Amino acid sequence: MSSTAQSAQQPTQRPARALLRCGRAARSPLPVLMTALAVLGGCAIVLPLVGMGTRVSWGQLPRLLATPSAQAALWLSIRTCLVSTAICVVLGVPLALLLSRSWPGVRFARVLAVLPMTMPPVVAGIALLSTLGNRGILGAQLRQWGLPIAFSTTAVVIAQVFVSMPFLVVTLEAALRSRDEQAETTARTLGAGPWRVLAQITLPLAAPALVRGTALALGRSLGEFGATIAFAGSKEGVTRTMPLAIYLEREKDTATSLALAAVLIGLSFIIVGATTVDWSRLTGVLPGGPLGRVGQKVSPSSEFPSNDESNGDDSSSTTAASAAPLQGTGRGWGLQVSFELAARGVAIDLEVEAGRTVALVGPNGSGKSTVCSVVAGLLDAENGRVVLGERVLDGPGRFVRAGRRQVALLSQDPGVFTHMSVLGNVVFALRCQGVSRGEATRRARAELAAVGAGHLASRSGSALSGGQAARVALARALATGPRLLVLDEPMSALDVTARQEMRRLVARRCAEEGLTLLLVTHDVLDLTALAEEVVVLDRGRVVEQGPTARVLSAPRSDFIAHLTGTSVLTGVIDGETGAPGLRLPSGRVVHGRPQEDAEGGRAGGREEWDDHDEDLRPGAPGVALVPPDAVALYREAPHGSPRNVLTGRVMGLDRSGALVSVRLELEEGQHLSAAVTAGAVAELGITEGQEILCAIKAVQVRVVARRS
Question: How do residues 49-104 score in pLDDT, each as one tens digit?
């Protein structure tokens, strides 16, 4: 690889920590006033703690804490706090999950969940006493059953749960509500059920918020005073926790109360401080539970290659040859999709033959991703029909959920689970299909080797470049044994080199597996490298369909014309039916090729342009399609008698591979593009704003009628 190409890839290979440092360096400085206020705010928190520290008899601390009353209060607080925190997690996590969703009345429910945080602690104790006290609405009945609650250790735990659980719920609910749900969607397409998605995707990704919320709840339980004294009372060894002991000792034994207060502050500091430590770095283990630890520690020998895509096809061909047989070696199945979604303005009737590659193209909002979501099972077709092979996936009275359709979906975001290792990502997909752990690990290594990512098995999913993440996502998708592979622009975010490697990899794997491929793209190179047939969508309808070569060489839709660089001139039909031309608004005529030379065939679905004889009548609206290689530029009139010689003004020059694309304006609203060599640009002295002669080969101009 040249030095230029290597330097172009350096930003994608820069370590995340280096990028973080760069981001910090680029931050604007904090205004002086804000800095001063921040210092005052810190002083308001720290100074009281420092002041109390000057009063503590640190040398006598062990003796003061060894008294029976201090020991009883300390251990009672620890026991009740641990129990109440466990209850907060068991009840608070489901509550946070429920409150993070949208349902009628959820906003009112969120207010109720926060209310104990704003309520005075004594009021909280009175509320609990009114409910669970000996004369409370529930407490009286519990007392008759021999289960008195008030003024017992159980009451201490209940008081702590009531005041501390909102801290966990609010912290976790906010994180869940603002989360990116792409990882969960990806897990569903891999076959994960609700419990697996929750346990292995949602909660692990929300782990920082869960840990901090749990620490806040534990710290709040440890410091609870008002609700406890009002509901549980103060009985030594039964309900007298450390805050109560500090309050009672304050008048008669100040030294002991200060010692207990110092211990309480120290415990709170340790609890909250533990949430700021990156334990995965200290232990050398990836976060995310058992699946995240599949790769174990990263060894120096598994460092990324200096080139993002090195050890690609070359290494994968060698390793894959010795790997175990891969899943899904059967042929792909044919696809039939027919549905109408009025809310999105999409009505599609599409058929893909088994083992073929069909590309969906069209402008943004034309319905391409909607088709992918319906096929993958992420969206209900609503009275439509989706059939894969002979299996009905979506139809009247039947809906096969995502992940159970034998359809693999790759979207613009690779969706690699960042809390798992690379190997763990692929193992997860296989486990969702019911494969045993040992077999899943073996097959996952084989799939990674087949895409040239075997050396990344122990890497964290968060430490991959774009090209590496795309490879891992492909290996994970193919591990599920799909019959249909749906690619919704998975290469759009990759650099040029990574995109080329990905195209070759997809083409090779689809050929090996015999897969049916549905490809969404805006890149003409994807079409030429992968697609056998192209379907063009516009405003939710199919406007053009046919073999890739014909669609690209003789486009019928405005989108494909611009995608291939073809210039579109508008005007009215001129000339004879057999040899049509196009008269521009200025009166100049652009002659086209004879109609009998035009490629036949009619596009599927509604056509924007049509070249049937009855439509190419003089005076009818029409367009001329001019490919850039049909335009030659001259400073003086060319020799001979070319039929199309028009004067244009140079509007700009752009590099297009080894050629230069010259943008020209023939007249207002009529633009042309010419592809010439850099030498021709220098020889002709082409500069922006210059007028130049444009000779257009009539045999390469296609004149078609335009429907209104």
Answer: 888 888 888 888 888 888 888 889 889 999 999 999 999 999 999 999 999 999 99
Number of other CB atoms surrounding residue 238 within 10 Å = 15
User: What's phi and psi for 233, nearest 5 deg?
Assistant: 75, -165
161-191 pLDDT, tens digit per residue, is 999 999 999 999 999 999 888 999 999 999 9
Q: CA torsion 226→231→234→239, rounded to 10°?
A: -100
CB-based burial of residue 649 (10 Å sphere; 0-12 exposed, 13-18 middle, 19+ buried)?
middle
Burial letters for 659-686: b for 16+ Cβ neighbours within 10 Å, e otherwise? bbbbbbebbeebebbbbbeeebbeebeb
How many Cβ atoms from other residues are within 10 Å of residue 611's Cβ?
A: 21
What is the CB-side half-sphere exposure of residue 296 using CA atoms within 13 A? 3
Using CA atoms, how far apart are residues 148 and 140, in angstroms rounded to an integer?
8
Three-class secondary structure of residue 534 per DSSP: strand
- Mean pLDDT score, 220-238: 89
Q: What is the pLDDT of residue 358?
A: 94
Length of the chain (residues): 708
E strands, 454-510, where? 484-488
Beta strands in 205-334 (DSSP E): none
How far apart CA 44 and CA 694 sit, in angstroms, is 76
Output the pTM of the full model: 0.73
> How far is residue 25's CA from residue 21's CA, in Å, rounded to a whole number?
6
**Residue 595: pLDDT band by 50, 70, 90 thresholds?**
low
Q: Which helix (H) or strand (E) holds 19?
A: helix 16-25
> Quick check: 126 and 230 in contact, CB under 8 A?
yes
The partner residues of 508 in beta bridges, in order of sequence, read none
Nearest alpha carbon to residue 395 among 404, 377, 382 = 382
Which residues does residue 692 pair with via DSSP β-bridges, in sequence order? Answer: 648
- Output DSSP code: residue 199: I
For the CA atoms of 330, 332, 334, 338, the dihedral, rounded to the nearest 10 degrees, stands at 120
Q: Is 48 exposed, middle or buried (0-12, 13-18, 19+ CB in 10 A)?
A: exposed
